[in-house]
Every structure is written in structure tokens, then in C-alpha cells.
Specification:
Layout (H helix, E strand, L loop, with lengths): L15 H23 L1 E3 L5 E3 L16 E4 L4 E5 L4 H10 L7 E9 L12 E10 L7 H25 L14 E4 H7 L5 H11 L2 E5 L19 E13 L4 E11 L2 H11 L8 H7 L6 E7 H9 L14 H9 L6
Parallel strand pairs: 1-5, 7-8
Antiparallel strand pairs: 2-4, 3-4, 5-6, 6-11, 8-9, 9-10, 10-11
């Protein structure tokens, strides 16, 4: 069934050539701004990891990783879903200190992703991770970091608008962030779906950090799924903005303060993932050997969509689409890369 919807009367702000130029500039600007603001160093990251290490992210627990064998190494590998756990291990191995962090280009294949305006089987993110002190494992530190990231996005947009005046037709991204919890949204709109709650809140609060994702709410259901072994479900969230082209809430980043030994122990039990305790990464964490960290992923194509005013993610990245999506975009004059 076709999931793609092109808004009536949609016309891109930039032509194909200017779009490609703007994507390159946007990525360079944002990387530099984010790295400077959060004290992050760029590192190289893997496209795939060894399956037996437990380093791959299982997302909601049902997505299948793209797997293959490496005969000469005698190993089975998986294309990453994300680098949530790999980054923390890298900080440990590279001996980073408190207050220091890393960022990297993360490229992934999520074969089971539903294809629509926002989702592709190809995922590109700026993955980042930073070591924090025990005193920083709190909501105030999380909120402060969110504001820093949003400011970096707004600064990038400001420069883009000066280089490509066509983009001034889009509303500027505000830097005032609304903070709300998933439980508060459930209590406001108990009869609505999580997505409908997000749309209702973000329409009135155009830049929002939605906190507390992964754990069960009072209704007994979580707002959304989140793996039990990287974010602390009480200290995480999503950066959501109002997308004026699609007229809906739009997730730009999933992030949070990561689990310590106690939180991992608790969440593995709640999620019924006891077997993971024997994996190398999880054993190090439960033994208190890994650093305390905060981190997340920021969608590269998502940020390009927002700041360049695009209606479909295929306008800013090259991927594979079903025939119905291709035809719908062709009929609307939307060029898929």
C-alpha cells in the first residue's frame, strides 16, 4: 500500500543542482558546529560488526539485520542498524576522558523499514557519544545538551539561508525548546495514538524534546520501542520539530543518557533479554568498566529534508523505492535521487 503523500501544490525551493550543493554545505556546516559545541572529535566507524559481540542495535527487537559470512575471518557479520553501543565501546578503547566525545558518519541498512516520505531502507546519521561524570546523569544535563544541538541546527540553517536565499521562504527553526514527557502526553490525550499525540503537541510547540521513551506508561504500553541496552529509558527522548511542508511532527534525533550498570540490569529484566548479560559489551557494562556516556543519532537526510524544504526523503538521498512511490513522485514532479 502506498505510504507516500506529496502535499498538494508542493514545489521544491531548490532545483536538483542547487539541492546537491546545499546538501554538501549543510553537512559540512553542521558537523563542524556540532563538534565544536559538544567537544567531539570525528572518528571512523564500521559499516558492519561481528554478530557475536552484541554491538549491533536491535531497535524494536523485530527488525532483521542484513547478515553475511566472512570466510577468511571465520566470522559472521551484520550490517549495523545503528552505532549506539559501538560508540561507547570506542570511547573506552580510545581512552577518551570526561567531557570528551566522538562523532561519526553512520550508514546503515534497515531492510524491514516501511517506506514513506520519511523512511528509507538506507539510514544516514551523525552518531555521537560523549563521556560524562556521574553528577551529569540527570535530566538537567540532558536538557542542556538538547538545547546545544538545536542551536547548532538553527545556526546551520541561518548560514544556508544566506547562501541560498530561496530557503527564506521556509520558516526559521526556533531555538526555544519545549520539554514534555510521554506520560504527560498520554494523560493529555489517552484516546489518541502516540503519533497523534506528537502531532498535536508539536503543532503548538514547534521544537520539542519528548522525554521517556522505551518504558511502559501507566496504560501498560510504551510510547515507542527502544532497545534496553543503550538509553536509560528515564533519561532519553526524541527531538521533534514541526515540519511546515508535511504539516506533521518530524523526528530529527533520538538521544539520551546511556544506561549505567543498574539501569541495564533493570531494563534487561523488563525487556526479557536476560541472555544478553553474557555478551562481551554487556558484561563490561554490568561490571562497571565502561564510561558513563550521553549520545544519540541525528538524521542527516532528515535534517536536509527540513532545512531544504523537501517533501520526500528520496529528494536528499539515493535509495530503492517501490513502484507506487516512484510513480507518485513522478506524477507530482518530485525528483528521487
Amino acid at each position: 500500500m502506498l505510504q507516500t503523500v506529496i502535499p498538494q501544490g508542493y514545489a521544491p525551493c531548490l532545483n536538483l543542482y542547487d539541492t546537491q550543493k546545499a546538501i554538501g554545505l549543510l553537512k559540512r556546516l553542521f558537523e563542524d558546529t556540532l563538534g565544536g559545541a559538544l567537544h567531539l572529535r570525528r572518528v571512523s566507524a564500521p559499516l558492519f560488526v561481528e554478530a557475536s559481540t552484541g554491538l549491533n542495535d536491535d531497535l524494536n527487537g523485530v527488525e532483521r539485520a542484513v547478515s553475511f559470512d566472512i570466510p577468511d575471518a571465520g566470522r559472521d557479520a551484520q550490517v549495523v542498524h545503528s552505532l549506539a553501543k559501538w560508540k561507547r565501546m570506542a570511547l573506552y578503547r580510545y581512552q577518551f576522558s570526561v567531557g570528551e566525545g566522538l562523532y561519526t558518519d553512520m550508514n546503515a541498512i534497515r531492510r524491514d523499514e516501511e517506506l514513506d516520505n520519511l523512511h528509507s531502507v538506507y539510514v544516514d546519521q551523525w552518531d555521537w557519544e560523549k563521556i560524562i561524570a556521574p553528577r551529569d546523569r540527570n535530566a538537567d544535563y540532558l536538557r542542556q545538551t538538547v538545547r546545544t544541538i538545536v542551536s547548532a541546527m538553527a545556526e546551520t540553517q541561518h548560514t544556508l539561508r544566506s547562501v541560498f536565499p530561496q530557503l527564506t521562504a521556509l520558516p526559521p527553526l526556533g531555538t526555544e525548546v519545549s520539554f514534555v514527557t510521554t506520560q504527560e502526553l498520554e494523560e493529555l490525550w489517552p484516546d489518541r495514538s502516540p503519533k497523534e499525540r506528537e502531532d498535536a503537541w508539536v503543532k503548538e510547540h514547534p521544537v520539542t524534546f519528548l522525554m521517556g521513551i522505551g518504558g511502559a506508561l501507566k496504560s501498560g504500553r510504551p510510547h515507542d520501542g527502544r532497545a534496553p541496552d543503550y538509553d536509560d529509558w528515564t533519561l532519553n527522548g526524541d527531538i521533534l520539530v514541526w515540519n511546515p511542508v508535511l504539516e506533521r511532527a518530524f523526528e530529527l534525533s533520538s538521544m539520551g543518557i546511556r544506561v549505567d550498570a543498574a539501569a541495564l540490569d533493570r531494563q534487561l529484566t523488563l525487556a526479557g533479554c536476560e541472555a544478553r548479560r553474557e555478551l562481551p559489551f554487556h558484561k563490561l557494562l554490568l561490571e562497571g568498566k565502561l564510561p558513563l556516556t550521553i549520545g544519540g543519532g541525528i538524521g542527516q537526510s532528515r535534517l536536509c529534508m527540513l532545512l531544504l524544504g523537501k517533501a520526500h526523503i528520496g529528494e536528499v538521498q539515493a535509495s530503492v523505492w517501490d513502484e507506487q512511490t516512484i510513480q507518485a513522485c513522478r506524477d507530482a514532479g518530485v525528483i528521487l535521487l
